[in-house]
Structure formats: C-alpha cells, structure tokens
Amino acid sequence: MIQIFILTVRNAAVASIADCQHVFTMVNTFLTDKGKKPLFDVRLAGITDEVKYNGGLFKVTPDVRLADIQAADLIVIPALTGDMSTAVMLNTPYSLWAAEQYKEGVEIACLSSGVFLLAFSGLLQGRQCTTHWNYANELKYYHPSIDVADERMITDQHGLYSCGGGNAYWNLLLHLVEKYAGREIAIYAAKYFVIDLDKSIQSPFIVFHGLKDHHDDNIKDVQLYIEKHYKNKLTVDELAKHFNMSRRSFERRFKKATRNTVAEYIQRVKIEGAKKQLEIGRKSIQEVMLNVGYTDTQTFRDVFRRNTGMTPVEYKNKYSRKMLG
Predict the structure, then answer these.
(1) Which of 91, 144, 283, 298 is deepest in the core (most CB within 10 A)?
(2) Angle at 89 between CA 86 and CA 93, to 5 degrees
(3) Can you list the positions of beta strands (E) in the chain?
(4) How many Å apart are CA 46 and CA 218, to the nearest integer?
C-alpha cells in the first residue's frame, strides 16, 4: 500500500487536513466497491500527542509520531494560516524532517501556503512552485531563488507538489489520485466531490497587490504613484525622470524591491483596474480599455488574457454583477 502521512503542523487550516484524509480514504472505498484492494494507508503524523486549532475549538490527535515512521511514500503538508514567518518558525522540526525524507525518495505535497515550510527547508531552490496568490509576493520576497508561478493551480516537479490558494488543494489531491490510482478513479473522485478535474490556472482569482514589504521608500513612492495614475500613459523613462533617478538605477531598484519590472508592474496595475471595472458591469469593454490607458484592442486583449487566463469578454461574463443577477 502507498503510505501517506499528513503532517499535523501547528497553525494549519484544519479543513485541509480533514479534506486530504477524506479524499484518500474515499478513494479506497471507491476501489473496494469495484472489487479492488485499497491503495492508500493514510495516517496523521505529528511531534506531539495532540494539536489544538482555532483557539482550541478543534483538536487533532496524530496516529503516529514522526520519529516512529519507518517508511513513507508521500508526505502532505497542509495549508497554513496567519503570519507565515510565525508558522514556519513554529513548525521548523516538520520542515527539516520532511527535507530528510525527500532525500530518501519520499514525495512531498504542499497544500497552498504549506509550501512555505518546504521553501524554508531549501528543497525548492531553483525550482518552481505555486501558492495562494495572497502569499505569493511574500514567498517571492523571502525566497528569491524559487520560481513562484502564482498563476498556476498546481505544480509537479521531481516529486515535489504544490497548489494555489483556497480550494485549489482539491485539484492537487485529485492530481495525486490520478497519479497513484489512475485516470478512471480520479474522474470518478472528481465527480463524487464535484470538482473540476482539469482546472490548471488560478489567474482569474488573483487580486494584484504590489509587494511593498521592502525598505526602498523611493520605490514605494513610485508604486503608489503608478497605482494612483495608472489610467494615464506611463513610461519607464518618464517615471525615472519624475523621481530623479537614472533609468538603469530605477529599473534595477524597482525589480529588486517588487520582484516585477516597471513595465510588468504598470501592466498588472492597469489590468487589475480593468478587472474591477468589468466586475461592476456598467461599462463596455471598449470603454474600460480606454479608461485604463490602452488604445489598441488586440494589445489590451492579449495583455488581459496573459494576466488572467481569460479574455475581457470571458471575464466580464463570469464576474459581472449583471451576470450574477
């Protein structure tokens, strides 16, 4: 059987622990209903006899201590809540243990913000991962060597798995079910849990908040200026001149502080403004395009799709208040 251990880390989102255990247990049920043998041995693993969550409202009792685990095939790190730096420090023993297990050939799946524990271990250096879009900037800032693909719903690289925010961990769990149990069972599980099996991006759900947890006050001023004047035509040269910096120095400092080039930042702020206007639903796409500083329809469409994974029409149809009725 495939040995799966779900870590009962502190500051975890309890639902991500329960849902993970439920998915693999139910797959065993699906298999036995088809006359097949159960595939997964799923256990909760921890370093204490009991873990309290949500101010003691929930209590989880691990099935096994980390030190007593003899063999594992897959380790699951649940989503974390609250301040990520605090959560990582509280769970350092889990992070280090998981890293050692990976070196022995064990695969690791991180649910949403749980990827911060894997990042802390150093295993993700030079590799790609994703996480909840709200934590992506923080992950990029503290771990610049990691390729944070925050538009992706899931990543799968060399036995290391990660997923986006919110309910995206369902997609990763089904991805793992498909890998271990096959496409047929994964499709049945997707139907049972009413989950879109092949959803690949979380771009439509991302709300862009420029990274401002840095110490370059001049660049913070530039960010605020862009966010206030994004409807105007903004160029790198004009911004550099306005803030009394050479273009080379300006671009270098901006990229270092925000993890975006100046052009990327302007583009993302404009598209975020366009998204908000499309959600209200009162203006035509042409009006929105002009209002955020674009004059070419094809360029606007291409940039919008690149940032959201959807065309302006598709986005408006999905999120407009009129459509929600």
Answers:
(1) 91
(2) 145
(3) 2-7, 40-46, 51-53, 58-60, 64-65, 74-77, 107-110, 128-129, 147-148, 154-157, 160-163
(4) 45
Distance between CA atoms of residues 18 and 150, nearest Å? 25
DSSP bridge partners of 163: 154
- What DSSP state is assigned to residue 292? T
CB 30 within 8 A of CB 192: yes
Q: What is the rounded distance in angstroms from the CA atom of residue 1 to the CA atom of residue 71?
A: 11
> What is the pLDDT, as a whole number, of residue 201?
61
Q: How far apart are CA 183 and CA 298, in angstroms?
A: 38
Q: Are 160 and 146 in contact (CB under 8 A)?
A: no
DSSP bridge partners of 59: 52
Structure tokens at 164: 């986006």
Q: Could you tell me whether strands 58-60 and 51-53 are parallel, antiparallel, or unpaired per DSSP bridges?
A: antiparallel
Segment-wise mean pLDDT, segments of 10 residues, the chain, 325 residues = 97 95 97 95 95 91 95 96 94 96 96 95 93 88 89 89 88 93 91 79 60 85 90 92 94 89 91 86 87 90 88 84 47
> Any idea what the Cα angle at residue 103 is, between residues 99 and 109, rounded to 5°?
55
Q: Is the pTM of this model over 0.85?
A: no
Q: For residues 136 and 140, what is the distance between their CA atoms, to the nearest angstrom?
A: 6
CB 161 within 8 A of CB 155: yes
Q: What is the pLDDT of residue 203?
A: 54
Instruction: Classify residue 15 by burial, with Cβ atoms within 10 Å: 0-12, 13-18, 19+.
Output: middle
Tokens of 253: 């400092």
Do 177 and 183 touch, CB atoms closer than 8 A? no
